[in-house]
């Protein structure tokens, strides 16, 4: 029982194979469910962005050495030149200043000019047609259009113009300048057709033909954000009405480096990259490339107002690619990036161009998802296989270490290879397995503990029942016995005493002594095999039947035996047996009839103090051999002589060192009694000697002594 | 019942007391059953039993009751065991042999 108690109080009982298998199945199922969930909910992109954005915030691209400058048409510029839109004349001057004085490598206008100059002299003439004299009107109409001036400047400068792909829906309310998109000029020479995976638009919003036709390059400025409103990529290439177009940044990089060719890298009908000169920019299959954003540097932009200012030093622009864009308060081209809640579109384009020139893109490899799922399942497998087996800190250290490795691989891929590998997806898959395993482990452990507790409870109940049974057995046993005081008075001429001390676990001894009608004295000592209530009841039955048989046979022991064997045989369903010694003493003559059924021989105490074993032929215990022919033996007890009858509880009594008391021990005690011994004195002396011999050890068996002495003459 | 075959030998090991008698009784009953099946007598060799309490006697009693004609011989008992057999008078219902 103590073993069970230990197990129940332990924190984690050992799990059985079945339990471990159940836990593992739960863990594996949970990881598959998580994998399915992530796949179905397309959670990967958004999930990955959490990490990728964080990486960029922790490690933004260094823009200090940017090869691109922004020329901002900011509030100061509007204050200096006038409200937007500016006259094409001003834009022409700006372009001229940037090229002639700034010596820039290329200019990109991050804006579209879809209408003619609002301040064209002809327009002015229209507005004032009735107010001005016809001659003045004619002069005005004769003045050249500012669009023409602008176009002339553009034609002589490395300028890239913006165009925006429009969807079929948008084209319902945006009137494209070029009704036939096939007429849109393209300057970049694509060395191969773009595959159909690339984003495509049926139409594009462009500048008026006068301007559009003189550009050195044309780039798509479709900077649509992700569904969460954050811009993470810009187009590298796109299809407009089936024609390959470069993205604005890529086109500007091309013109700025004086290159012609753009080489799409296509594998299995999907776009994977675009090569410009010696650099290959990895792009998504839709033609966009991911930017590694940096914090916009101080001095990254010049105000257009400064460019116009006479004597202003433009040397910082020399050799740079510049992007002219609107950043004044009213600008609608304000976007959110992983790094900044409010950033200007032209500055994003500037970063994109710089990324192409210096390498600042990010790549989400085609194999990333498969790798993440594989890592997740592998990790889940490790967790599933190890977790239920490990104890203590290792159970947590191993999965945590593996998780850290996943994070480290992802971070290293970002820092060293600019590769985007999502650590959260594998961690979620393995985490689901870990959570399910943990919950399963907890549930199974609790179930085991509950089972152990229940088993303990059952055992405690059984123990209590056993204890109660023992108590009942003891009460039955002791209740059957005559008190010692009665024994001393049963007949004149004889001194009788007896004692029974039940052991804690075994109860089956009994004694009795009584006077028969003719004055003879009958006595008996018995020992029932077995323990508990059964033994106690059989003892009660044996004692009652013995007394009844003796009385019925009127002291004739031969008849008594026959009756007893028959009666006990009839009532002995439990296959028990009982040893018994019965004696009938004629107090006046000293005639002693004895009968022993497998019982210890009594001690005969001679009047002169000698101790002898009173050898009785006897037979086996009653209940072992019903057909045994028992004999009655006849002895004589002289006056002053006595008998001490015991059970094996005395001879088998053990000392702590394992020695047993033995008949020799009994003889020794009885020898010391002296001449005037009393039955009670003999009983007490023997009892004390046995208990002293045991020295406090729990006795295995009942202790029973019956002493009888014929009164000395 | 013995049909000429040598008696089956059952040899218990160790002392037979409060803690071991149940196992002894079980093994003994099985031995008796086997002896019955093989129609042989059963010789219980007590050479390796240093001590036997009255619990062992109960086992012998049960064996004898289930013997059904198989003669059970108690053999090889030491002095202590012989004393037990003598006190209980089992030497009167079992054949006790030296060897």
Number of domains of chain A: 3
- Mean pLDDT of chain A comes to 87
Span of the ends, CA to CA of chain A:
60 Å
Largest sheet geometry of chain A: 10 strands, mixed
Shape of chain B: globular
Structural class of chain B: alpha/beta
Put simply, the count of helices of chain A is 21
Give the largest chain-chain interface (CB within 8 Å).
A-B, 26 and 17 residues
Overall domain count of chain B: 1
Helix fraction of chain A, binned, reads: 40-55%
Which radius of gyration of chain A do the C-alpha atoms yield?
Answer: 57 Å
**Any idea of the CATH topology of chain B?**
Transcription Regulator spoIIAA
Low-confidence spans of chain A: 1-12
Residues in β-strands, percent of chain A? 15-25%
Mean pLDDT of chain B: 86
Helical amount of chain B = 40-55%
The N- to C-terminal Cα distance of chain B equals 22 Å
The total beta strand count of chain A reads 29
How would a crystallographer describe the biggest sheet of chain B?
4 strands, parallel
What order do the SSEs of chain B take from the amino end to the carboxyl end, as H and E?
Answer: EHEHEHE
């Amino acid at each position: 029982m103590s073993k069970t108690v230990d197990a129940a109080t332990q924190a984690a009982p050992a799990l059985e194979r079945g339990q471990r298998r159940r836990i593992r199945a739960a863990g594996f199922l949970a990881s598959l469910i998580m994998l399915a969930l992530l796949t179905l909910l397309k959670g990967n992109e958004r999930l990955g962005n959490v990490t990728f954005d964080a990486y960029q915030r922790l490690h933004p691209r260094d823009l200090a050495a940017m090869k691109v400058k922004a020329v901002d048409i900011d509030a100061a510029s509007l204050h200096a030149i006038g409200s937007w839109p500016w006259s094409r004349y001003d834009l022409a001057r700006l372009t001229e200043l940037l090229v002639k004085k700034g010596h820039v490598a290329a200019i990109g206008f991050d804006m579209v000019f879809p209408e003619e100059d609002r301040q064209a002299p002809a327009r002015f003439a229209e507005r004032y047609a009735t107010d001005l004299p016809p001659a003045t009107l004619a002069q005005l109409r004769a003045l050249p259009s500012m669009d023409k001036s602008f176009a002339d400047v553009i034609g002589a400068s490395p300028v890239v113009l913006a165009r925006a792909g429009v969807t079929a829906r948008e084209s319902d309310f945006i009137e494209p300048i070029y009704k036939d998109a096939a007429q849109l000029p393209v300057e970049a020479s694509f060395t191969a057709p773009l595959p159909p995976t690339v984003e495509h638009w049926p139409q594009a919003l462009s500048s008026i033909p006068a301007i559009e036709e003189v550009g050195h390059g044309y780039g798509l400025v479709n900077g649509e954000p992700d569904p969460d409103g954050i811009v993470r990529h810009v187009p590298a290439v796109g299809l407009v009405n089936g024609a390959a177009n470069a993205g604005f940044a890529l086109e500007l990089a091309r013109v700025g480096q004086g290159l012609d060719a753009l080489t799409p890298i296509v594998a299995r009908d999907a776009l994977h990259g675009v090569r410009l000169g010696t650099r290959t920019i990895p792009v998504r299959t839709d033609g966009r490339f991911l930017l590694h954003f940096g914090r916009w540097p101080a001095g990254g932009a010049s105000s257009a107002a400064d460019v116009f200012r006479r004597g202003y030093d433009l040397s910082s622009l020399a050799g740079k690619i510049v992007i002219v864009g609107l950043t004044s308060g009213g600008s609608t081209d304000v976007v959110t990036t992983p790094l900044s809640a409010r950033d200007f579109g032209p500055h994003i384009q500037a970063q994109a161009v710089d990324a192409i020139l210096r390498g600042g893109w990010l790549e989400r490899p085609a194999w990333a998802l498969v790798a993440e799922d594989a890592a997740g399942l592998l990790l889940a497998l490790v967790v599933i296989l190890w977790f239920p087996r490990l104890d203590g800190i290792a159970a947590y250290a191993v999965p945590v270490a593996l998780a850290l490795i996943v994070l480290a691989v992802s971070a290293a891929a970002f820092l060293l290879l600019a590769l985007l590998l999502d650590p959260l997806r594998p961690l979620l898959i393995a985490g689901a397995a870990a959570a399910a395993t943990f919950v399963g482990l907890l549930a199974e452990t609790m179930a085991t503990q509950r089972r152990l507790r229940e088993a303990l409870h059952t055992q405690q109940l059984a123990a209590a029942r056993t204890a109660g049974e023992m108590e009942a057995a003891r009460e039955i046993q002791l209740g059957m016995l005559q008190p010692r005081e009665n024994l001393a008075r049963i007949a004149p001429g004889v001194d009788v005493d007896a004692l029974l001390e039940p052991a804690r676990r075994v109860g089956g001894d009994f004694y009795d002594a009584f006077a028969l009608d003719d004055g003879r004295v009958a006595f008996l000592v018995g020992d029932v095999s077995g323990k508990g209530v059964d033994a106690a009841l059989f003892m009660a039955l044996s004692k009652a039947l013995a007394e009844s048989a003796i009385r019925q046979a009127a002291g004739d022991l031969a008849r008594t035996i026959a009756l007893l064997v028959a009666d006990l045989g009839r009532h002995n369903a439990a296959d028990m047996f009982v040893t018994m010694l019965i004696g009938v003493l004629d107090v006046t003559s000293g005639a002693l009839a004895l009968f022993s059924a497998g019982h210890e021989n009594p001690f005969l105490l001679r009047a002169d103090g000698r101790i002898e074993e009173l050898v009785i032929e006897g037979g086996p215990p009653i209940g072992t051999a019903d057909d045994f022919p028992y004999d009655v033996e006849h002895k004589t007890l002289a006056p002053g002589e006595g008998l001490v009858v015991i059970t094996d509880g005395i001879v088998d009594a053990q000392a702590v060192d394992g020695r047993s008391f033995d008949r020799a021990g009994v003889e020794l005690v009885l020898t010391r009694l002296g001449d005037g011994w009393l039955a009670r004195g003999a009983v007490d002396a023997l009892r004390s000697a046995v208990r002293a011999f045991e020295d406090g050890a729990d006795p295995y068996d009942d202790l029973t002594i019956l002493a009888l002495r014929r009164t000395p003459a | 019942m013995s049909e000429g075959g040598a008696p089956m030998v059952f040899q218990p090991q160790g002392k037979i007391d409060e803690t071991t008698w149940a196992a002894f009784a079980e093994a003994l009953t099985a031995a008796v059953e086997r002896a019955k099946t093989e129609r042989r007598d059963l010789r219980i060799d007590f050479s390796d039993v240093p001590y036997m309490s009255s619990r062992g006697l109960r086992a012998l009693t049960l064996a004898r009751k289930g013997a059904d004609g198989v003669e059970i011989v108690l053999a090889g008992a030491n002095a202590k065991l012989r004393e037990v057999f003598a006190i209980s008078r089992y030497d009167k219902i079992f054949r006790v042999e030296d060897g």
